[in-house]
Specification:
This protein starts with a helix and ends with a helix. The chain has helices at 2-16, 37-165, 167-176, 181-247, 252-262, 284-308, 432-442, and strands at 20-25, 30-35, 320-323, 326-329, 336-339, 342-345, 351-353, 358-365, 371-376, 381-391, 398-399, 404-408, 419-425, 428-430. It folds into two domains: 107-308; 313-436, Distorted Sandwich (Glucose Permease (Domain IIA)). By secondary structure, it is α+β, with helices and mostly antiparallel strands. Helix content is 60%, strand content 16%. Strands 3, 6, 7, 8, 9, 10, 11, 12, 13 and 14 form a ten-stranded antiparallel beta sheet that branches. A two-stranded antiparallel ribbon has the order 1-2. Helix 5 (252-262) packs across helix 6. It contains seven helices and 14 strands.
Length: 443
Amino acid sequence: MRTRLGQKINAKLEHMFPERRVFLKSDTDTRFIRVRPMMQLVAFTGSAMLVAWAIVATAIILMDSIGSGNFREQAKRDQRTYQSRLNEISSQRDSRAVEAVAAQNRFNAALAQISVMQSELLNSETHRRELETGIEVIQLTLRGTMKDRELARGQVAELQSQVNSGEAGTSLASAGGSAPMDFVAEALAKTAAERDQVVRDAQDALLRADEMAQQIAIMKDQNDQIFRQLEEAMTVSVTPLDKMFRAAGMPTERIIEQVRRGYSGQGGPLTPLSFSTRGEEASADALRANKLLNQMDRLNLYRIAAQKAPFANPVKAAFRFTSKFGPRRDPKTGGRRMHKGVDFAAPNGTPLYATADGVVTHAGWSSGYGRLVKIQHEFGIETRYAHMSKLRAKVGQRVSRGDRIGDMGASGRVTGVHLHYEVRVGGKAVNPMIYIKAANDVF
């Protein structure tokens, strides 16, 4: 059976691929190579597979080329869209910066107005206390005058009763003869004049008391208006600062207490203010004034704390963000890595500034960071400024917010000129945009 099947297959192959001979002739001899049907089938199959592979490979290359062209076009479109979006964000940032400057000016003007209002409030409080003391003296005098008037009225009534009954004449006659009646009349007239004078003095005192009461009412209205303006100014000033610290995830009460401990010297700029109540129970106005003064003290503490935390942008010139905080594709190796800061791209040599008051703890080369500056701030916060082209700060130097600490460059492990900016709290990297955005919402 197998032999018969094999014979049929060979006969079919001989029909399709007849046996061929390839002659090789030399000068002295002639030889040939017999190409059997099976060998021809193998060669034909191999050639067909090679041609098929070439066709498939060519198709793949063409499709890849077409796909790459479409991808490049899409990438260019995405890049144009991204660039327009960045330009729009940059213009928005510039407008926000202008608004921040205007808000800061309004804030400073409000503080100046608060200082003036505070002086007026203290002066009005002193004047009010003087008026209250004057009213107390007038009331005491008035009570004494009324008492003397009642005593004089009693004496006049007694003399009149004696004159009417004749007892006065009898007593005067028994004392040494007949007393002139004009003496009695003079005494009565003098007593009546004193009574009328007492009445006039009492009426004048009542009029002065009414005038002083009106003045006190007017001053109370003025004080209430001043209080309302101060309370509104405190709300406008303190609330955004408190929101800024909370948005940055900073515990406001602990920070305020820490700043207060650092500025608690007697006579210092942050000594708490209060009205003296002279050992008396504090009035509603005194409590209200003390509350305002405590809010002003809190406002000053917030401003000091804001200077010590990195609520600012390290780049003031035109720039664009090229990488955000968090996991990203490594620009060198292509793998996934944690990016512990944000990147600002700008021309080489762009000035870089400290974002808060602090002390420089490192200024030099640091492996992949290149030329690096580290600044230690209050509340356990550290900022890092990497890849600089030139350092303008030294270790141990105390810097303030806005001081220039270096120039933007491309030192270290980079793909181009930019600033790598980090914020670390307790040694742990946090998103710097939290602080930058919180500051933009206030300043």
